[in-house]
């Protein structure tokens, strides 16, 4: 099967406007994501989907491919779907534009998930090592069945380890845990993505503010694979410093 990585890159981020163009170790953030994606062994191409002429021009300046998309898209998935509708690839991989630590192996992993014909969507999970992440609503947790198919995603601690929680000073503390967090990279069969983008937001999605719940509510099967790589997204200018330290450590 053929595959393409599409990176949705919006300029007007609420918390960090112009984020894809901020310099990280001398290169725009979007260039880090693009060049890491190009190192994938299984992806046939990489395209940036953007609503910004500045991002479009910057990508072409460093030799990348970019496509202008509608400014009115409510999500990155819709932006990816617009480009997917105009290209002829079997698998579409959605890589976030704010994750410069993305590894080529992670892209290869989500592509190979779809070797299982039962899977409509592929994504990655990572075992949580820091107990603080379990109660952090910004860290999305996931539970899956014995074959790796997602059962549910939540901002709440799942599964809830009833016998392992203890209360101290009105605060919960967990002694032992076995929880997984969701890593936000997706692979879609092309026809599934185009169908998914046309679906109305579902009730659970609106409650948790998690787009992947729309897929589960509509009967799409999301298969997961565990990764051992740790990556951090850039949501604020402060996050750039954390990522810089990670890049320096890896050199």
Give a structural overview:
This protein has 251 residues and is an alpha/beta fold. It contains nine helices and 13 strands. Helix 2 (53-61) links the parallel strand 4 (45-50) and strand 5 (66-68). Helix 3 crosses helix 6 (190-197).
What is shown here, in short?
The protein has helices at residues 29-38, 53-61, 76-84, 104-113, 131-134, 190-197, 203-208, 212-217, 237-250; strands at 3-9, 23-24, 27-28, 45-50, 66-68, 91-94, 121-127, 141-144, 150-154, 165-168, 171-174, 180-189, 222-226. The chain has 251 residues and is α/β, with parallel strands linked by helices. The protein has one domain (3-250): Spore Coat Polysaccharide Biosynthesis Protein SpsA, Chain A.
For the structure shown, list the relevant keywords:
251 residues, 9-stranded mixed β-sheet, alpha/beta, two-stranded antiparallel sheet, 9 helices, Spore Coat Polysaccharide Biosynthesis Protein SpsA, Chain A
């Amino acid at each position: 099967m053929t595959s393409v990585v599409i990176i949705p890159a919006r300029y007007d981020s609420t918390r960090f406007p112009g984020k894809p163009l901020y310099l990280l170790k001398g290169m725009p953030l979007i260039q880090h994501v693009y060049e890491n994606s190009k190192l994938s062994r299984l992806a046939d191409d990489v395209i940036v989907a953007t609503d910004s002429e500045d991002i479009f021009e910057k990508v072409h300046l460093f030799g990348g491919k970019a496509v202008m998309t509608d400014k009115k898209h409510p999500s990155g998935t819709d932006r990816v779907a617009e480009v997917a509708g105009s290209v002829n690839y079997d698998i579409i991989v959605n890589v976030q534009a704010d994750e410069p630590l993305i590894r080529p192996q992670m892209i290869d992993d989500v592509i190979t998930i779809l070797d299982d014909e039962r899977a409509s969507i592929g994504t990655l999970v990572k075992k949580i090592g820091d107990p603080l992440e379990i109660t952090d609503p910004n860290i999305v947790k996931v539970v899956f069945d014995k074959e790796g198919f997602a059962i549910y995603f939540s901002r709440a601690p799942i599964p809830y380890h009833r016998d392992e929680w203890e209360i101290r000073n009105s605060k919960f503390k967990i002694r032992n845990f076995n929880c997984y967090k969701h890593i936000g990279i997706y692979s879609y069969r092309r026809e599934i993505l185009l169908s998914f983008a046309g679906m109305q937001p579902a009730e659970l999605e609106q409650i948790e503010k998690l787009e992947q719940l729309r897929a589960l509510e509509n009967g799409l099967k999301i298969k997961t694979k565990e990764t051992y790589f740790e990556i951090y997204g850039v949501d604020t200018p402060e996050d750039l410093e954390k990522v810089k330290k990670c890049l320096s450590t890896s050199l």
